[in-house]
Design goal:
heterodimer, A: mainly beta, 6-stranded mixed beta sheet, about 0% helix, globular, B: mainly beta, 4-stranded antiparallel beta sheet, 11 strands, about 50% strand
């Protein structure tokens, strides 16, 4: 089983749409959870940390379910500039990051 | 806003040559990392470094790889004898000591091409 698993997509949505990404992780000892965004041939950039209580940052909402080892990201009112690859990332007990393969989002006009 | 910087942005080398990739982490950070991403694949952990020594290394980080913090600002990754399969983007990251959400901040990467 992959350590961090994501649907690769692509998700092709119109501007203004709401889109949801899901991710599962295998190591129950993982301690921190993140969504990063990566543009083509660029570095991963932190989008948001993910908490069990859920957290929201503008149009982005992230949720963690530790019991199910499941992480989600919801993007509301998609913009063209949201087109990117979204990386589900887990920090293990030794503080290294384990990356998913990413979910590609294409927002069309 | 403080950021991680990396040089060079692109390095082309011949197989068997040594390369040194350089990183300047965020100034008050104490944990440093190297990751790599082969084209079309996921980002993979290589090594973590704290208090002037390696904390953890992956299976990828074999005897051909080494890291060093030669002064108070630079953090380097050396590949002694490059192979074709070392071609990848290499990202440096740093993390503050404690507190917050343990976020790691990434540099822009060095694209290594081995011919």
């Amino acid at each position: 089983r992959k350590e961090v698993e994501q649907d690769p997509g692509p998700f092709n949505v119109p501007e203004g749409a709401t889109v949801a990404f899901n991710c599962t992780y295998s190591n129950s000892a993982s301690q921190s959870f993140f969504w990063y965004r990566q543009d083509c041939r660029k570095e991963p950039k932190l989008l948001m940390s993910v908490y069990s209580s859920g957290n929201e940052d503008g149009r982005f909402t992230a949720q963690l379910n530790r019991a199910s080892q499941y992480i989600s990201l919801l993007i509301r009112d998609s913009k063209l500039s949201d087109s990117a690859t979204y990386l589900c990332v887990v920090m293990d007990s030794s503080y290294k990051l384990i990356f998913g393969s990413g979910t590609r989002l294409l927002v069309r006009p | 806003e403080p950021e991680v910087t990396q040089t060079p942005s692109h390095q082309v080398t011949q197989m068997g040559q040594e390369v040194i990739l350089r990183c300047v982490p965020i100034s008050n950070h104490l944990y440093f990392y190297w990751y790599r991403q082969i084209l079309g694949q996921k980002v993979e952990f290589l090594v973590s470094f704290y208090n002037n020594e390696i904390s953890e290394k992956s299976e990828i980080f074999d005897d051909q790889f080494s890291v060093e913090r030669p002064d108070g600002s630079n953090f380097t990754l050396k590949i002694r004898s490059t192979k074709l399969e070392d071609s990848a983007m290499y990202f440096c990251a740093s993390r503050a000591l404690a507190g917050g959400d343990n976020e790691q901040f990434f540099g822009p990467g060095t694209r290594l091409t081995v011919l």
